[in-house]
Amino acid sequence: xxxxxxxxxxxxxxxxxxRVAGEQGGHPPLICFHMSPMSGRIYQRFLAxxxxxxxxxxxxxxxxxGMSDAPPSPPGIADYSRAMQxxxxxxxxxxxxxxxxxxxxSMIAADLAADRPDLVRRLVCVSAPIxxxxxxxxxxxxxxxxxxxxxxxxxxxxxxxxxxxxLGRGLTIEDLNDMFPEGLLAGxxxxxxxxxxxxxxxxxxxxxxxxxxxxxxTNDDLQExxxxxxxxxRHGRVVELPGWGHGFLDGFPADAADLxxxxxxxxxxxxxxxxxxxxxxxx
Length: 283
What we know:
This protein has 283 residues and is an alpha/beta fold. 33% of the residues lie in helices and 17% in strands.
């Protein structure tokens, strides 16, 4: 399997941690943005699989998460997007590039695609967080900042939720134990990404994105919200993937790479016509 290299580049808030697989060649590189409060580690196996299929793939830790330096105060999605643009520039990627986002990362990717149609060619979103006002009110309460507890109950609560959403579908409890620590690296900033997401434009700026957009609607906590995306997209498609949920990039990395590449490699005249949905995603 291809080695995933790690490096740092300079961004507007300090150093940004990146994972890189493959070499730049005949295809636009794929730049991946993670969900909150995780890190680019969620793409580790996927990056290697995509590189094996001949495409350069890069995952960037959002500022304040993973091993990227944090902003001085809670940022918004536009701040994250600006930081990702700086990282792409620092990596020497003049474009075009393709983008892939996961939950909060989907918002960051859509914001960047809307701002830079000259840079971004195509966009893949793992779920499209299109929230109603009522949902946002509930989510702000659910993901409000919380204090750590001396007995570690806050860690147990997070672990139990992680197991609920990730166990199975290609992942064992040992896999989850390996994945889980990444969500703790933000420390007291854990809520920053959710705060940015819940303060963002309710249409995710999808109405402004002119590039082809593929939304992967997996069996997770944003499945219902993702089904609202077709009404907003100018040139997009939602594909239902009931066999996949959180952790599918670890559980089925080769299958995920094959699906994404089928979209990225399709001709401009029919970007959705060659999409290949693996059997693992259909179950």
